[in-house]
Amino acid sequence: MKFFIDTANLDQIREAQSLGVLDGVTTNPSLMAKEGITGEKNIIQHYIDICEIVDGDVSAEVISVDFKGMVEEGKILAALHPQIVVKIPMIEDGVKALKYFSDEGIKTNCTLIFSAGQALLAAKAGATYMSPFIGRLDDISTDGLNLIQEIRDIYDNYGFETQILAASIRHTMHVIECAKIGADVMTGPLSSIKGLLKHPLTDIGLAKFLEDYKKGN
Ligand code: E4P
User: Fold this and answer.
1) CA angle at residue 117 from 111 to 120, to 5 degrees?
2) Measured on CA atoms in the order 194, 195, 199, 203, is the torsion positive or negative?
3) How far apart are CA 154 and CA 40, in angstroms?
4) Pocket test for ligand 1, best of 5, 28, 61 (most atoms within 8 A of CB)
5) How many angstroms does the Cα of residue 170 sit away from the middle of ligand 1?
6) Residue 20: its pLDDT value, please?
7) Among this protein's residues, is 87 annotated catalytic?
8) Whose alpha carbon is nearest atom 9 of ligand 1?
9) Rounded to the nearest whole angstrom, what is the distance from the C-alpha of residue 27 to the centroid of ligand 1?
10) Atom of ligand 1 nearest to the CA of 135
11) What is the DSSP string of the chain?
12) Residue 189 CA, ligand 1 centroid: distance in Å
């Protein structure tokens, strides 16, 4: 399972990278705005800065909602750095853009997936990744993890190579449940990654080992 961090915060990206388990980064316009990154020039530079911190794929989202605009914008984003993945919304023109970039050999991440039907379309269009937002489904009393399972079953039925990028992860149990189902990637906040290492018995056990070592020396 690949671990992506879902943030535009460079300090958090550096911290996740320093753990040695980070495989990539996802961003979106809201995450950029949260860090105060506005204006085309600054946003572009920020993508480059992120690519220079991490080794893996970095999703950069288009703002256009028409095919021509998405293609123009996506080409500019893809040319910024070899690690850039063009993030495209699941709308009609987005499906056309996914197919266009797939034919051009440019990596894509189809975002804002909330149903198995949308996931099927993203795979048919040749998306590299597609992002079902499980936390946002949970927020409206719909089982987000069930969607991951449905998509896993459908993709396995036909051998689709599109990677399931479980997004809108809110906590460590989302990560663990997605791993059990077989999501290819998860993207979440730093807390959802660092939370995985916590266990009180580890802390108690380590304290005891250190105490006993001291007794013998
Ligand atoms: C995915 O690529 C999105 O950036 C993200 O996971 C959305 O998560 P949220 O629902 O916490 O905003």
Assistant:
1) 75
2) positive
3) 38
4) 28
5) 9
6) 97
7) yes
8) 168
9) 8
10) 10
11) -EEEEE---HHHHHHHHHHT---EEE--HHHHHHTT--SHHHHHHHHHHHHHH-SSEEEEE----SHHHHHHHHHHHHHH-TTEEEEEESSHHHHHHHHHHHHHT--EEEEEE-SHHHHHHHHHTT-SEEEEBHHHHHHTT--HHHHHHHHHHHHHHHT---EEEEBS--SHHHHHHHHHHT-SEEEE-HHHHHGGG--HHHHHHHHHHHHHHHHT-
12) 9
Catalytic residue among 2, 34, 41, 87: 87
Query: How confident is the model over 103-114, as pLDDT tens digits?
Result: 999 999 999 999
Model-level pTM?
0.96
One-letter amino acid identity for 152? R
Q: For residue 12, which phi and psi values (nearest 5 degrees)?
A: -65, -35
